[in-house]
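Forwarding these from the shared drive since the link keeps breaking.
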Amino acid sequence: MPNRSKDWLAQAGRDLDQARSSRAEARHEWACFAAHQAAEKGVNALHLKLGQEAWGHVVARLLLELPDPPPQDIVEKARVLDNFYIPTRYPNGHPAGAPFEHYGTIQSDEAIRYAGEILEFVGIQMAQSSRSE
């Protein structure tokens, strides 16, 4: 079976681009969700590159399941992103109001920044893995 890690990483980059576009259109809830998806797919790419299969949507857990756990600040940033997985999309994710009423530029800027840092970590790890093959 071919290693599809590059495909997963490419899609992660595209999801991060979508997060930026959504932020520019003031669709902050979608920017936060797309940033989460970028991080999730990026970490999945790294698992695949390492010959592992990862399941689930909790980015922090996916990071901690890597053979060499990442720095704690990367895990903490993933925890922030994990909070955007459900409530950004479903009205019952908050006590009242539609999801778009709960997110703004502060959240979307942070989500995009954190996802970018996670993808940078993933890229470095994938490159190091390639050199050791």
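-- next protein --
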Amino acid sequence: MAAAHSGFAGVEGTTDVLTFDLAEPGHSGLDVDILVCIDEARRQAAARGHGVERELLLYIVHGVLHCLGHDDHDPAAAARMHAEEDRILESLGVGATFAASRGGEG
């Protein structure tokens, strides 16, 4: 993942998820590749006290939201994006994951 992060984003070090929006201009559907890091998911899941599957699902939702126009590059945008992640995960029956792992902060 560190090589992909450097090669595609120009950022050294690992990351949790890389998203590639493949949709053609004017395309109404979602066409996306999402690269998730299982090693980072294992580390974060252990630190946050939930299963790796739940952490990976969070990464996938996060990636899809990026392709739908969400951004997390400033604190206010990140808070909105993480709230939407938790809203989606709650609607799927998984429950809030981002905020829950941070003691209710988001």
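The chain has one domain: 2-102. The CA atoms of residues 19 and 34 lie 5 Å apart.

- D.
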